[in-house]
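User: Run a structure prediction on this.
Assistant: Running it now.
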Amino acid sequence: MKSTIFITGTGTGVGKTVLTALLAEFFRSRGLRVAALKPVCSGGREDARRLHAALGGALTLDQINPWHFRAAIAPLLAARQERKRVTLAPVLAHVRQVRQQFEVVLVEGAGGLLSPLGAGFNSRDLISALEATPIVVAPNQLGVVNHILLTLEALPEVLRHQARVVLMSPPKPDAAMASNTRLLRQLSVPNLCALPWLGPGFSESEVLLKPEVRKTLAKLVD
């Protein structure tokens, strides 16, 4: 896998930060120098703080999350409310500067793939410009097949074939959970993985002790 990995999703609250923090801990456990960034966010910095904890002090909070805005709306609109403007060039420059210092850089988007992050750009633009490997995170629930297919279709063709898809399991299995996995495989969705329900308030380091979690993460990045 390329050294730059971009974690996007089918929407907001689907598990992007959970997966990014797990991957950061996983790469660190392998002895790799890893950075995890959430360059742009709105509605609080809880996600960035979770990444900061997962990195064990490798980066400051402001290095992880340079652009943050108060309103819990799309970052483009939240920035406008504060009379600020985020453009693509400085975001790319920041990620590339961090990339020089680390073996692996994880970049987490905000919202779904096409949610506007700033003036005239979204996560797809960042993935393309960084030549990053995309990971699409989605909740394993009824309706997710359509959401995943639409997200993959929105990626440039070369990135679509490189993409990984991670289904985040719900606390209680249902009929859709098993059928989604079968159907997505029948539809030749590339590099499909699923993570079990990890429980509320879990510790990444404790979760990584579970063989099934480590096996899934290894399959995802190897």
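The chain has one domain: 4-221.
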